[in-house]
């Protein structure tokens, strides 16, 4: 049998399982809230065109209104000023949309401290146990934040000082971007940067360094708890919006069955 026939047979027999890493996208899906004076994106809105009625007797369809960075989405390099000469979302090579992925689980630490930051030492300790980060693969950062994703207040977790959500230190973001072979970073939170990243140096370092290095971001992922630390294959499906900075995306993982 061909390798693709083997894959289909493995999927049929559930020796390979498909795990959906995508948050359901609806008008209540939490979105990033930047402080004044910055502009913000919009939530999803469906605008009905017809629904089996005199506007369209046999069909139901909508116009959709959404931001590029609404819900589970893919950040392209051009999204950040440091990546302004890089790929837009339509230029991300298709072969990079299927890639290996590893999961770094810091859910316990994030539950204790919502401002927890991943440091280089944490990644090196993970590598000592599981092997090197994947060349051309995703570093998926599990924080347990997906459990909050249907409650915007819990998910954004903001107080008078701003949002408190786990992320990556500036030093670690620069090291991941410039000294490791990963394709990008995927997170469960509303964006790849920590809630307090507006006050980091540089501000929003994950965006600044990773997108500036031509790498990518994936946000608002779910079900990372169902993935092994190593061995998953992640398939990402951003819309190829010409000139776009990112796109809502369906993100799937292939994992070896139990
Ligand atoms: O890329 C995003 O969705 C995101 O998190 C973001 C977007 C725009 C400005 C700052 C941030 S931090
Ligand atoms: Mn984004």
From TrEMBL:
GO molecular function: arylformamidase activity
Species, as recorded: Pseudonocardia bannensis
GO biological process: L-tryptophan catabolic process to kynurenine
Protein name in UniProt: Cyclase family protein
InterPro entries: KFase/CYL (IPR007325), KFase_sf (IPR037175)
